[in-house]
Write a structure and sequence with these properties.
It is a single chain. This protein is an all-alpha fold. The chain has a domain of about 25 residues. The chain has two helices and no strands. Helix 1 packs across helix 2. The longest helix is centred in the middle third of the chain and has 33 residues.
C-alpha cells in the first residue's frame, strides 16, 4: 500500500538539512525522511514499552506509609 503525503516544512533550515543529508548519504530526500520517521517511531515505541514496564514497578513500590515523606 502506498500513501502520498504532502507537507510544508516551513523552516528553511530543515529543508537545507534534509537536502544536505540526502546529498551526503547519496540517497533521496524521501529516503532520508523515511529513515527519520522509522527512527522516530522506533524510539517512541521503545519509550512507551519502558514506561509501561516502569509503571508496574512503581505500582509495587506504592505504599501508603510513604506519604509521611511528603510532609518533610
Amino acid at each position: 500500500m502506498s500513501t502520498r503525503i504532502s507537507t510544508d516544512l516551513e523552516n528553511p533550515v530543515w529543508i537545507k538539512l534534509l537536502k544536505l543529508e540526502a546529498s551526503e548519504t547519496n540517497s533521496s530526500m524521501k529516503d532520508v525522511l523515511i529513515k527519520a520517521l522509522e527512527t522516530y517511531f522506533a524510539h517512541r515505541l521503545e519509550n512507551k514499552a519502558l514506561q509501561k514496564a516502569s509503571e508496574a514497578v512503581f505500582t509495587e513500590w506504592n505504599d501508603v506509609r510513604d506519604s509521611a515523606y511528603d510532609t518533610l
